[in-house]
Amino acid sequence: MAITGPSIIETPQSAQVLSLSSRAFKMAYPEVLHQESITSDALGRMQPTWNTPDFPERQVTVSILNEVYVAQEGLVFDAHGNLFASSVTQHEPDKIALGFNSVLKALRSGCEMYCKRTAVLCKKRGADNYGHWLMEMLPKAYLSRLFLDHGDLDYLVSYNKSSLRTVIQDSLAMLDITRRRTLETGFEAVKVQSLVLFDGLTNHGVYMSPIVMDCIESVSARVQAKPSSKVFVTRESQSTRRLVDEAPIQELARMRGYEIVDPGSLTFSEQISVFKSAKHVVGVMGAGMTNIALAPRHCRVTVLAPAGMPDTFFWFMAGLKGQRYEEIRCGQAENGGSRPDADRDIFIRHHDIENLFDAEL
């Protein structure tokens, strides 16, 4: 007999322990060069958000759920295998099914890991991505430290084999959260005695609360900025979404006073130091460009974006920081193979390159 999916349930009102007011804010429609080249699917997914000039005040709620299970990238189930709706964050149906099956197995046979303390859920879909960690997961740890933590909380994060693991540890340390209080978990179900669950802080592609910037300012304050700089963010070391024929573009950037930066090769503190005083940041849409959140107000941000990539993440960040945001939609290489449009290498048109870097800044 096939196993059906979990029942979806709402977080009970009785579990709520805190409600935070997230201020209203305004957003301007982005300055997009070559918007006509954006695929209809990508544009259709971005336009409703881009066309929203006013984001009203809303509440961010914090609840504590008892005797629950966490599986996959932050899916939360109760002791009967029901799935809490607020923990579903862009999870595909197959990931939900895997999480559900893992929880059913744990309910039958027990869990290898059981957290007998109260833990904050700092894990969601995209847990292996620097940008998602910095803007959507770390702020939950920050707010918990600010309002709930009396030295008795643990922090549940995703186990990561890449350099992101060190970034997670270092950024938590900037919030005075030690490794001893950090629980690294994989995809298998973990039982948690009491779990702190946030709702309403972000909705990827649709909403980002200004509260997340309070967290960014807090960690940024721990690091001294380098002298004011202009930055070109490279993705040369990545396997996807690279800039075709990047060498001459880098050379032009250097000639005009830009520092070439591969964020993945830097520590978290070094990334803060580089971007904290940046006057202009240029780079291909991707995790490394999340560092614009560390850059100051009025910084100019130029994002090189694939024509087929639907993304409002960086637009939100720049808008909340009061930065000048612009996108250049680029052509996509034909050598993508089976890659989705968003992951294919891109090329910038020759007549756009000359205006890419500002020698006068």
TrEMBL record:
GO MF annotations, alphabetized: glycosyltransferase activity
Question: Where does the record place the Glycosyltransferase 61 catalytic domain?
Answer: 130-301
Q: Which Pfam families match?
A: Glyco_transf_61
* InterPro entries the record matches: Glyco_transf_61_cat, Glycosyltransferase_61
Q: Which domain of life is it from?
A: Bacteria
Q: State if Glycoprotein is listed as a keyword.
A: yes
- Keywords (A to Z) from UniProt: Glycoprotein, Glycosyltransferase, Transferase
Q: What is this protein called?
A: Glycosyltransferase family 61 protein
